[in-house]
């Protein structure tokens, strides 16, 4: 892959009318597009706040291509696609593609020729989904389910949906703290991009310097760095605690779980620094007692499990919207009407 | 798990109106409840005695959580759920729950938050399904698909359905022999409990002392122990032969397959001691030539494969009933109407 | 298995009215039956040449029994069955059947008793599907998804559909070359049988002697052998290049990939010997640069990916037709009406 030769994702994930036809990354999408995703996701809840099932993707075939194993994310996409009445095929892509000496390109073309409408792609390399969308299968709707450390855009959108539904405030008016292992998180970068696009003016990244990525200063407008937990949290409307990955613990970057908890673990005393109605989010899976205390994880301000439910709604939304964007580009439908 | 602190399953598996909302164990369920399950299962056969497909669980999500592998039982639940038009997700629960250091409780809450309506749980520990129903996910309908040596309640109910459909006699009027490895069987205890509840007055447990569990004398009313095969079978209406588990053979409890067959194997001579219209059942998989002779396994009195078909109907019934019991408890439907 | 005692497949794969009730092999099927399959497959494309979804198998249960792993073929059958609205269960048959000492026969009977309507069978032994259809589960529609080196009949039918749709010529009027590893290919024998039945009069088998099977001269009418690539291709309407299996390379039969490519690789110079509108087919997965040059694999005459799409349509057709043939035999429907 010569990633240098790729067009920017923002160019290729939209059709000629400016609607999503792939969903690869938050970067480059407009506020209108993100809002359309959130509105569509919202429409999948009924009056009792429960997820509906709809025939939007009836007769469509969604293939899950998980080059990297992630049982949980795959399950959420499978649940979302089935709620849209799609046929779902979990492809054992690692085994399919390489065991018989076929090129990956040929494997993907074969899967497309099995009448696939949507590929949900998880890959450990940054840009894999982008590469497939641009150069291999542009006529299949490609949904990025996480690539390398780069992007996890459906996680970002479920975080945005949760903030909107749970705070009932405008993105312009809220203060958000993202705490922890920014460096190794697929989530942090996508969250910051989404928040900026949606107009958030006070985004605080709270971490020790060893857990900040190089070039962090380029995150841009509205983002401030805090090494001090209390200052970072102060008067926030939303706190997003990130998972400390086990394999990072006891590395030079992070001396011990106990030390991290002492410096950055979210507990009652610290949460009290935030606004009274501050919500607490976490992308899961949680390390209780490391980045978050159980009293908070199970406490009244946590919205962690609602994030999971919102994740189904958001995945339904991007599946449905990208499918419609493809059909519109091919002239098979005139307008997006989710 | 502090199992001592759990309420009895009979308390937690019924909703406020006395209808099933989980299906954990036969013990404590009333004759009316068991009969409702059998009637509902019966309603899933059409006039040609073939299983129907119905939209009863359309839009509902069933997750199979098999902590212990059992391809066959999982397949029967998957087939049953799909006949009810549910979305079915097979969760690789062993991999999901532990690999990232998350607690099992958090894993289950996450799955529930993916808008699961029903968990089908198979676990090697007695009481696992009960524990989940009481303390982790009381708002998800929990179906016990076998736990430890304790309970295998859907197997018991498919046995009851088979007895009712094949003998066309009342449970009060029949004599039943259960033969073989009572000690290690999930089936025997559940079968005895169901038979007692349904009014059966002559239940004979036939086994060498080494294959009887401790405390067997507590099985209670209507149950008699036989070491002698011929006496145990005499004039029976129903014979249930149990599987000898391979790993037990050649243990001190069971000197050899040949010896067991000689003492307790069901063959023509022995079957002739039972009533002429006695039916022969086996939970599968069979060891032909050990607990049952092939002439019987394939003979006119065997109903072994009809048990399998009845197993789909019974699983459809408990899935549908527990779902309705949950909805009723939440005030979303008024009455159970399968 | 005493294969000698089996009836011929042509006898057992048809019902009393001469309609398919299993699909085991091309041999013995009439031109009318093959044409019916092709017509039915064609009917599953809409006006935009896209595969439709239909309720033909709604409420039916299709079980995939892959004794031998083949992710790709399994995926195509799963996609086909879901487009027919069937319930699909992928059975881990290797694990189910043997781990508990049960006989294969008992395992299959159990699966049938779970209300299976169709088994899709892939097995490394020639005749396995035939054996199951004749002696184990005659009332389940058995579809052969490839057995040993013997038959791969759905691949043959998708090749026939591709020839019909892409050349728009009659089978009587075309010349076809099948090139490469005839000896180890499941495809070649089935393709030749289908072409003969459909009336093709000029079938050329092009290979070195080391890659021809024993008894090749018995292929019969219309088939000629060529060791010389150019002579074999000359004036052809259709070229089918076969996969060289990696494990054969560097065996005595095939000194090296480079040598094979030099003698039999399809490149521009050689393709120019064929008719101008000659189409190029390959069953996949391809070894680019061994049996086929990339300029041909991606060139304007290749129809390789359309074969894959046609494969879904053909599998839909045999699933639907065999199901109807079973229902007709049981008196449940009067006429085949796909």
Automatic annotation (TrEMBL), chains A, B, C:
GO terms for molecular function: amino acid binding; aspartate carbamoyltransferase activity. Its EC number is 2.1.3.2. Carbamoyl phosphate binds at residues 72-73, 122, 152, 155, 284-285. Residues 173-321 form the Aspartate/ornithine carbamoyltransferase Asp/Orn-binding domain. Keywords: Pyrimidine biosynthesis, Transferase. It catalyses: carbamoyl phosphate + L-aspartate = N-carbamoyl-L-aspartate + phosphate + H(+). GO terms for biological process: 'de novo' pyrimidine nucleobase biosynthetic process; 'de novo' UMP biosynthetic process; amino acid metabolic process. It is an enzyme of class 2 (transferase). Residues 21-164 form the Aspartate/ornithine carbamoyltransferase carbamoyl-P binding domain. Pfam families: OTCace, OTCace_N. L-aspartate binds at residues 100, 186, 243. The keyword Transferase applies. GO terms for cellular component: cytosol. The keyword DNA repair does not apply. Pathway: Pyrimidine metabolism; UMP biosynthesis via de novo pathway; (S)-dihydroorotate from bicarbonate: step 2/3. Gene3D superfamilies: Aspartate/ornithine carbamoyltransferase. Heterododecamer (2C3:3R2) of six catalytic PyrB chains organized as two trimers (C3), and six regulatory PyrI chains organized as three dimers (R2). Belongs to the aspartate/ornithine carbamoyltransferase superfamily. ATCase family. Catalyzes the condensation of carbamoyl phosphate and aspartate to form carbamoyl aspartate and inorganic phosphate, the committed step in the de novo pyrimidine nucleotide biosynthesis pathway. This is Aspartate carbamoyltransferase. It comes from Acinetobacter lanii. The lineage of its organism: Bacteria, Pseudomonadati, Pseudomonadota, Gammaproteobacteria, Moraxellales.
């Amino acid at each position: 892959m010569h990633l240098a030769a790729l067009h920017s994702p923002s160019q290729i994930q939209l059709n000629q009318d400016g609607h999503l036809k792939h969903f690869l990354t938050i970067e480059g999408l407009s506020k209108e597009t993100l809002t359309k995703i959130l509105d569509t996701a919202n429409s999948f809840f009924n009056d009792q706040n429960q997820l509906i099932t709809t025939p939007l993707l009836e007769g469509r075939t969604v293939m899950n291509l998980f080059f990297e194993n992630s049982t949980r994310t795959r399950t959420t996409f499978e649940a979302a696609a089935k709620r849209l009445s799609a046929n779902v095929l979990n492809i054992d892509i690692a085994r399919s593609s390489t065991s018989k000496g076929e090129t990956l390109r040929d494997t993907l073309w074969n899967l497309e020729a099995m009448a696939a409408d949507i590929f949900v792609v998880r890959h450990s390399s940054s840009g894999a989904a982008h590469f497939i969308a641009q150069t291999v299968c542009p006529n299949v709707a490609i949904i990025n389910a996480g690539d390398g450390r780069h992007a996890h855009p459906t996680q970002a959108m479920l975080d945005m949906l949760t903030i909107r539904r749970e705070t009932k405030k405008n993105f312009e008016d809220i203060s958000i703290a993202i705490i922890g292992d920014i460096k190794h998180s697929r989530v942090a970068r996508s969250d910051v991009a989404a928040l900026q696009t949606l107009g958030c003016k006070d985004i605080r990244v709270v971490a020790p310097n060893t857990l900040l990525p190089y070039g962090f200063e380029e995150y841009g407008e509205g983002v401030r760095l805090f090494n001090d937990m209390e200052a970072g949290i102060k008067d926030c409307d939303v706190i997003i605690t990130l998972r400390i990955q086990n394999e990072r613990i006891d590395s030079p970057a992070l001396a011990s779980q106990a030390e991290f908890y002492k410096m950055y673990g979210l507990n009652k005393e610290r949460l009290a620094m935030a606004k009274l109605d501050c919500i607490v989010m976490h992308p899961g899976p949680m390390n209780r007692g490391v980045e978050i205390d159980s009293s908070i994880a199970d406490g009244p301000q946590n919205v962690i499990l609602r994030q999971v439910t919102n994740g189904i709604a958001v995945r339904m939304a991007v599946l449905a919207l990208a499918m419609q964007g493809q059909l519109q580009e091919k002239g098979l439908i005139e307008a997006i009407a989710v």
